[in-house]
Design a protein that fits this description.
The protein is an alpha+beta fold and about 100 residues long. It contains 3 helices and 5 strands. Helix content is about 40%, strand content about 25%.
Length: about 100
C-alpha cells in the first residue's frame, strides 16, 4: 500500500485517545503501547477518519496552524507513514 497525497488513512478502533492542551496521548490496546503526539500530529490523527485524503488533511492543518510552507504535505505524509509503521492505522480496503 503506497502512502501518498491521495491515501485516505483510517485509525484502528483499538487505539484510545486522551486529548491534552498541547497534543494527545494514544494508547494502542492491541499492542499495549503508548504514543505521545504534539499538537500538529494530534490534528493529523483526528483527521484520519477514513473520509479525508492526506491532501485534504494538509489543507486542514495549513489552515489550523496558518502555515504556508511547502513542506506541510511532505510532513503529513511522513507523519501518516509513522502512524502506519507503529501499526496505528487500519487498511479496510485490503481486508
Amino acid at each position: 500500500m503506497e502512502i501518498n497525497e491521495n491515501f485516505v488513512p483510517v485509525t484502528k478502533e483499538c487505539v484510545e485517545v486522551e486529548e491534552l492542551d498541547d497534543g494527545c496521548i494514544l494508547y494502542d490496546t492491541e499492542n499495549d503501547e503508548v504514543h505521545s503526539l504534539n499538537s500538529t500530529a494530534a490534528s493529523v490523527w483526528i483527521c484520519c477518519d477514513g473520509k479525508h485524503s492526506i491532501r485534504e488533511i494538509a489543507v486542514v492543518v495549513e489552515k489550523h496552524f496558518k502555515s504556508e510552507s511547502k513542506p506541510v504535505l511532505r510532513d503529513i505524509i511522513k507523519t501518516i507513514k509513522d502512524f502506519s509503521k507503529k501499526e496505528l492505522l487500519t487498511f479496510p480496503y485490503l481486508v
